[in-house]
Amino acid sequence: MEKIVIFGSTGMTGLCAVDAALKKGLSVKAFVRDPAKLPEHLRNAVEVVKGDILDYNTVLDGIKDVMGVVVVLGTRNDLSPTTDLSEGLKNIIKAMKELNVEVISVCLSAFLFYEPEKVPPQFHDLNDEHKRMLQVLQASDRKYIACFPPHIADQPPVDYIVKKGASPGGRVISKYDLGRFLVESLNQPEHYGQIVGICNKPS
């Protein structure tokens, strides 16, 4: 896995994924709507692809010549109904098939482990969209890693634990640890085709 593309690379976790990939010595394509949102030290270290996940041709351009894909799409703080993330993921999967790229890690949410009635009401619409994204992954024939993090904290890295198909129990993951897992899991076949819960190790 020498070269990867990161979709959502200017978000809180996306920036950490870019940094983690560079520290591992990978070549990185950063797919962004606004290149100015990439900090200068990262902008000069990656190949910037300006595009929109809803524009298939730019997605195709982003996935050309890579061996793995990281998807950390978010809505910032907008919790209103949307299908942009799942429609964008459909474009990503379609482009991966066209270009014969097999491995993809996707950041979703630990709310997908909850019974629907236990999800806080303000997150219902976003959770529904994450469900649609998961369905897109599960319907594909790609080697996907569907990561379900709990609260993503702006705190230093410690270490993380993962559990297949369930939450490991913790309620927080450092953005740095999550970014690192999304990159590292691309090279970990034991996670392919899996839903993976993640959290920081208790101190």
Walk me through this protein's architecture.
By secondary structure, the chain is α/β, with parallel strands linked by helices. The protein has six helices and ten strands; from the N terminus they run E-H-E-H-E-H-E-H-E-H-E-E-E-E-H-E. It has helices at 12-23, 40-43, 56-63, 84-99, 124-139, 175-184; strands at residues 3-7, 27-32, 47-50, 68-71, 103-107, 143-148, 151-153, 160-164, 172-174, 194-200. An eight-stranded mixed beta sheet has the order 3-2-1-4-5-6-10-8, with helices on both faces. It has a two-stranded parallel ribbon with strand order 7-9. Helix 4 (84-99) links the parallel strand 4 and strand 5. Helix 1 (12-23) packs across helix 6 (175-184), helix 3 packs across helix 4 (84-99) and helix 4 packs parallel to helix 5. 44% of the residues are buried.
Number of helices: 6
Poorly predicted tracts of residues: none
Sheet-strand content, in percent, reads 15-25%
Class from secondary-structure proportions: alpha/beta
Helix and strand succession? EHEHEHEHEHEEEEHE
Straight-line distance between termini = 32 Å
How are the strands of the biggest sheet laid out side by side?
3-2-1-4-5-6-10-8
Which overall shape is indicated by the principal axes computed on the Cα atoms?
Answer: globular
Q: Give the radius of gyration.
A: 16 Å
Helix content: 25-40%
> Can you give the mean pLDDT?
95
Number of strands: 10
Q: Sheet bearing the most strands, described?
A: 8 strands, mixed
